[in-house]
Structure formats: C-alpha cells, structure tokens
Design brief:
CATH class of the largest domain in chain A: Alpha Beta
Strand order of the largest sheet of chain A: 2-1-3-4-5-11
Structural class of chain A: alpha/beta
Order of helices and strands of chain A: HHHEHEHEHEEHEHEHEHEEHEE
Strand content of chain A: 15-25%
Helix content of chain A: 40-55%
Radius of gyration of chain A: 25 Å
CATH superfamily of the largest domain in chain A: Response regulator
CATH topology of the largest domain in chain A: Rossmann fold
Shape of chain A: elongated
Oligomer: homodimer
Number of strands of chain A: 12
Largest sheet of chain A: 6 strands, parallel
CATH architecture of the largest domain in chain A: 3-Layer(aba) Sandwich
Distance between the termini of chain A: 74 Å
DNA sequence: AACAATTTCGCAAACGTTTGTTGTAAAAAC
DNA sequence: GTTTTTACAACAAACGTTTGCGAAATTGTT
C-alpha cells in the first residue's frame, strides 16, 4: 500500500536505523490505521525463539496453585512472556499430553508440578535435553539433577511438630498425603524426627479430602488430643470429621496444619498453620526460570521458608 | 534420514492415502525414535488456522473463575484446542494488553470477563469484525449485539429468598455485595421482591469478608433467625462472626448463601446454597463458542439456571 | 508388447516474519 | 568532475509445515 518492500516495513516497525524517519512515520500510521498486529507464529517460526512458558498444574481450581499461577502470570506479563497454563487433572495421561503440548508449542521453558503418583520424569528429562529448562515446583521428583522450588517442606513440618511438642500433647493424629511424593516423605521424616519419643503419633496417608474425613472419623475413636494435617486439602476433610464428631477445638482436640492461609481462617477459632505461600513460590519459580535462561543451569533446590501463623486451635 | 521427501513424511504422518503402508510405518517409527513433535507455529502459519482460544479473566485466584477456567480448559483439551489464559488483574490496561496478545497469537476465539469499571468494548468489536468470535461471561456488557453467558443472577436470589420464606423465618440478616455492581442490584431487587412483607429483612452491603464479619457481629445483637449471603466471600466473613458468637446452625440461626459449592461444604453442617457454578458456566461458554465457530453467530444471552443444594443449615 | 490405469512419491509454492547482503541514489570529499 | 561515503531501501533466504500438481514406477489390460 505504501509502495515499499516488506523488509522496509519490518524494519520501520522496529525502529531500525536504516530506515528514514519519514518512512517510519508513514509505516506506523498505516499500521495503526489497519490495526496491524505482528503474527507471533511467524515470528517464532522465523526467529526460533518463543517467549512462551508452559505451566503444568493438577488444577487451576485449587487454593494453592491458583495463587502460584497468578504470581507466575504476573511476572511473565512484566517480562513480555506469555504463559500457557495446562491442567493435568492429577492424571498422568493428561500430564503427558500437557508436556507434549509444550513441546509442540516450542515453549521456552516449563513450570511443572508432578501428578500425585508420578515418579517418572523421563519426559521432562527429554525436554531438558532439548534445551528447554524445566522448573519443578511443589510436587517435585526425588531426583537431584533437577531444578526445584519448594516450600520449606521439612522446615514447615519441623515447625508444626515443634509446636505440638511444645504444647505437651500426648497423642497425635498426623495426616500426610500420598507417600510416593517426595514432599510427603520429607515432611513426614522431619516431622517424626521432632516428635520422636515425646508423644504417640498415629500416622495416616490420605489422597483426598474424602479419605481424610473417613480416616479421621475412624481415628477419633482413639481419642487423640491433637491433629496435624499436611495440607489444606487434608485439613478440610479432617475438620469435617472433627466438627461432625462435635469436638471442640482446641479443648477436645488441638489442630495445626500447613497451609496457604485462606482455609485455616475460615474456622473458629482460626486454625494455627505453618504458612506456605503459593504466591511467593510463584515469584521464586519465575526468577529461577529467568536465571536458568540466562545461563545458570545448575541443578538446585530452592526453598521458600515457612513461618508459623498462630490461630487459636492449639 | 529415510531418503524420502519432506512432503512424503508429512503425508505419512497424517495417514494420507497416497502413501504406502510400508513408508508410513518407517516414518512413524523414526518419528517416534526422534521424539518428533510437529511445530504448531509452522502449522498455524501454513494453514492459517489456529486451534487456540484466549481467555481473559480478572484473576485465576478466585473461587468462581478458577472453576470456570477449569471447565473451559477441560473442554478445550477434549476438542484439541489450547487455551491461552490471561489475567486482567481487574485493570483495564492489562485487559487491553490481553486482547492485543490474543490478536498477536491469532486466536480462534476469545472468552472474556470485563474488568469492573469497563464499559468500552470497542476492542472486542474489532476482534469480532475480523472474524474472531468473542464470548462474554459473568461480567458482560449491556450492549445487546454480543454473545453472553451468565449465571441466573436474579434467579438464584429468588430461590434463596423463596427458601427462607418457605421455612417461615421471621427476621433475616441479608448481606449483599457492592451496591454499584449490576450483579448486586439484580440479586437484591429480585430477592426483596420475594421476601416482600413475609418477614423482616435487615439489609446490609459489604465489600469484603472483614466487613461482612463486622457487620454480622453487630447485626447479631438484633437476634435474626436467619442469614443470607450473596457470595462466598461474604459468607466466609459472616460465618466467622456467627461462629465467634457461639451460635448453632441452624437452630440459633439458619444460613443460606449463593455459592460455587466449595466453601459451604467446609462447615458443619453443610451450608445450604444456591449453586452458581463456574464450572457449568464454563461448559456453556465453550459449547457456545463452538456453535459460533460452526456458524451460528447470532447475538444472544444464555443463562445458567441455579439450583438449590440443600445442606443442613436451614 | 504396447498402452492405460494406478500407486507412490517429489517439487515447489505458500503462510508472515527477520535479517544478511546487495543495490542505488544523493551527498560529501577530493 | 570524479570518487568515496552515507543513507535508504529492496532482494532473497530461511523458519517448519501443507498441499496442488506432476512424474516415475508399478501393475493391469488387451
């Protein structure tokens, strides 16, 4: 339309010094008038650089992950990246599909949280081998060749256990998540080291709120004086059982959990929790990704420290 | 590597009848061995068809939107579409950026929820004019040339009010959200029409859970026999006050709310709620999108009807 | 054995960009 | 007046696919 070549237009649009101001102006005006937007597909194809990150998460509808996602998305926007958010539905098949989608879209990097039972990270290793950095978050593999950002799994468990010991509790019902996950192992190990011989601990593993509720209901028969939950998900199930049993918190049973903070504040009294912030973790994950892209590809495990947020439940 | 041309490989991979079974097999085996994944950028560029939808939402960290997103993402996956999820942060500048991103990525369609103050939908109209369908959800424009999917705002209020009247309650504390929002107006108007002269209603407007708690605590002095909350956010605050006051639900006070369903089930007994399902709305939005793409581009406003989900709180 | 029909595949253009190289004026230097 | 520089812009190749068309190889028909 302007009687000039495509390459001149391209350069004009990106303020290349070869192009005269007069031409640049004409080009910009017409581009505006036509509502021109560059085709990112073509750009990525041509430059083989994709400012797109993939994020794989069990579900966006989750109190922890949604804040993680919000944080990452925010940072991506600031840095000119786009985020492809994929749900694995906590199903390893979908997780694989998601990884495939990431590869098909030639993402510049992947944030991923393993599905519950999954210990097979070959797909991710392949990604890494093709030069695509993978940042594992929250549910990370045991493998120590990877880059991982986590909440202070051991640390938060230690704080929680310490609090229970300090309060001189004698019989604790402790609910952990899927025993296959490293997060579970770490929390459990650290937790039990602190409780040690100080008190009797009834350990159970549960996979979802329903199971947590059922297990708790059964375990309450043994009249524990305290309850620890490894996550919000577990807490909601366990509390349901506690409330149904008509127990008073903290007099009949003390409660402490590890949480993002939203759920514990819904109850009365507020449940005391060790804070694990999805938002903070998201920020950390992003900066780690950027460092990786900038060249630092050493395997590492970064930890967001936890703090105890006292409620009235213990 | 196989001594055959690129076009033959392309055809073999998609089971084109021109290609012999023998060749297809060889191609597939090598593709597998090499972990070949087609480059979607190239495909979209070549075919000028993009199986990508954009979704613009104030925040993914939200009880309602997260389930909406989950639903849409799920359906997209089933239909071979990919979802680009963008957060507007309830800021119209970010909203515009998000629309731009959608255009740059040549999305096949956009789902959007307007930011709070926004009444300017020119950008969306432009999108529509370039053949990209736009489905508005939840916070939709007044404009009636658009395609909109919404919850039954009035309908859910009517059901809640009807339930309270039916239970023969006499003094109701009713908490609504920001009176400036159209959703609040619609719900309040419909609600009060149903309650009418049947009972005394103490109406309050609150903007956040803290305010809901404070207002409820004060209003409990007047000993209402029932409590209605317009949203989960309000419910969490109000329930806090109820629990702190040591009231028994439903004996001391009956409770009913409008909700997505997650929060009400945390309490004991379960809070009775009128369901406004982000999940259902997401499914509806998706099918509407697909219909639109299939050719039906008539403006319309679709409503997801609400249903009463009985808990034990009234 | 000659021809037609069929099967199988390669060639080349195109999608919308970017970018190294080359071309051509006009301006500057000699 | 000739050469050199400068400023601007065009050419062409490339990214990884898809696909219409044509060509070669194979098979079938008389």
């Amino acid at each position: 339309m302007l009687g000039i070549s495509i390459s001149t237009v391209s350069r004009a649009l990106k303020d290349h010094p070869d192009i005269s101001d007069k031409t640049k102006l004409r080009v910009r005006e017409l581009a505006d008038a036509l509502d021109y937007e560059p085709n990112t597909n073509a750009i990525h194809l041509r430059t083989s650089k994709n400012n797109l990150f993939g994020l794989i998460v069990p579900s966006v509808a989750n109190f922890f992950y949604d804040s993680f996602i919000a944080a990452v998305e925010e940072e991506c926007r600031k840095s000119g990246y786009t985020l492809l958010i994929l749900q694995s539905g906590d199903d390893s098949r979908s997780e694989q599909d998601s990884v495939k989608l990431c590869r098909q879209n030639r993402v510049a990097g992947v944030f991923t949280c393993l599905t519950s039972g999954n210990t097979n990270i070959d797909l991710y290793k392949k990604l890494k081998n093709t030069g695509v950095p993978v940042i594992f978050f929250d549910k990370v593999p045991d493998d120590n060749e990877e880059i991982k950002v986590c909440m202070a799994d051991a640390g938060s468990a230690i704080i929680a256990a310490g609090t229970i010991v300090e309060k001189n509790k004698k019989k604790l019902l402790a609910l952990f998540g899927n025993p296959g996950l490293s997060i579970t192992k770490k929390r459990e190990k650290a937790f039990l080291e602190v409780t040690g011989n100080n008190l009797q601990v009834l350990v159970h593993h549960v996979d979802n709120p329903e199971e947590a509720k059922a297990v708790t209901a059964a375990a309450l028969q043994q009249q524990p004086d305290s309850l620890f939950c490894m996550s919000d998900e577990i807490l909601t199930g366990a509390m349901k059982a506690v409330l149904e049993a008509g127990l008073k918190v903290p007099d009949d049973i003390a409660v402490i959990t590890i949480s993002n903070g939203f759920i514990p504040k819904l109850y009365h009294p507020d449940i005391t929790y060790v804070e694990t912030s999805g938002y903070k973790l998201g920020k950390l994950a992003f900066t780690t990704m950027m460092e990786n892209i900038a060249g630092d590809q050493a395997p590492k495990e970064l930890i967001v420290e936890s703090v105890l947020v006292p409620g009235g439940s213990i």
